[in-house]
Amino acid sequence: DGLPIHMTDSRERGESSRRVSSSPHGRGARSSHGLTGTGPLNRTFVVIRDQFVKDGDPVRILSGEIHYFRIPRAYWSDRLARVKSLGFNAIQTYVPWNYHESTQGDLDFSGEKDVFAFLTLAHQHGLMVLLRPGPYICAEWDFGGLPAWLLSADPPMRIRTWDLDYINAVDAWWGALLPRLVPHLYQNGGPVVMVQIENEYG
Description:
By secondary structure, the protein is α/β, with parallel strands linked by helices. The chain has helices at 76-85, 97-100, 115-124, 164-181; strands at residues 19-22, 45-48, 51-54, 57-58, 63-65, 90-94, 106-109, 128-132, 192-195.
């Protein structure tokens, strides 16, 4: 069984609200991408004795990297179909924080940045997803996916540490992103079977 994750809404901490541009994704309701995220679906993905087990059966993951933020949306389906035709059953993708929040408090998950639509397409192509939402992703991406506005904090913020200002910024980012990913988790009918936190630390 996975460990429970508690996500605190930024409003509970007294922080200012954030503007989010996205396709409508109601929590616990059917989204525009056809995923519900409600009720038990008897779908499981676990690790038993160093073996991935999907719905009770051992599964070998054959995965390739497909980064939605590097591919025009018009080609997403084509690229996923090519991966599938090569015999892969999964893809990995990062979620670059600075791609979605280049200006502090102004989040964008619309159009080319609709990661949720990308996940739905992966699901439609029969691909599992290994999701890597950072906050630091490396990926040969500007500042490893961290938004540049972190550097303008006064006093200076110590990024990738337990510095409270940095942790609060990450908490606000994940507080906006992670609840929207819940309907896309495998147990909720989506394609996401694993999530990597941070990348190349230490």
